[in-house]
Amino acid sequence: MASDRKHKQSNSIPIRFFDDNDPRVSEDDAEFEERAEDSDPGADPDPAVADARASDMGFGGPDLAELIASRAELKRLQTALGEAQEGLARRQADFENYRKRIERERGEAHHRVVGEVALKLLPVVDNLARALDAEKTVQSSESKEFRHFLHGVELINKQLNDVLESLGIQPIASVGERFDPHIHEAVVTEPSDQYEPDTVTEELARGYRIGDRLLRPAMVKVAARRDDE
């Protein structure tokens, strides 16, 4: 019995009661709080202290420094890559704008040169068309040889118009269209039973354009509004 009592006493842990007024307890609490503040996970540790703590925890100080340096270098390279990509995008946009401007200027120069040549040819085309229209009225009374000759002239006129079309020169639609002062020039106005007022009833001279540029407005006759309307 005595041996059992001794064994129980040796395994028991003595319970210590503290008094709040005991100065030793206050000192222990202050020391505990100070250690807790030093171990604040949200604080930014000093690199030297971090290396020392890492060394105490089994991490090599040089290895941690290399890791931090590698992350800084990676961030720097990512920033440089982003700046390079932005610069490349700007240069591509500048080049695309330059290419479009050159193409536009080239097209305008082509239209200007072709238009100047076409303006000198248009009177010839007009006179040839008038001659053909006049001969068609007396074609039935002419000889077979003359009609054959006239057919050859018609082919030449068609070929000339095809050449103008291949250069991008297009005739302006007139008869039956509503009068447009931007592309039509009214030479005569008269009432018409067939067309509504302000409608082109006859084309006296064909107008032409090249691209968006007007070479010559069409000379037209326009239906006028009747006085009794």
Radius of gyration, whole Å: 50 Å
Q: In terms of structural class, how would the helical and strand content be classed?
A: alpha+beta
Number of E strands: 6
Shape descriptor reads elongated
CATH fold-level assignment of the domain at 99-224: Nucleotide Exchange Factor Grpe, Chain A, domain 2
- The name of the CATH superfamily of the domain at 99-224 reads Head domain of nucleotide exchange factor GrpE
The major β-sheet equals:
3 strands, antiparallel
Per DSSP, the total helix count is 5
From the 3D coordinates, which CATH architecture of the domain at 99-224 would you assign?
Roll
> What is the quaternary state of this protein?
single chain
Helix content: 55-70%
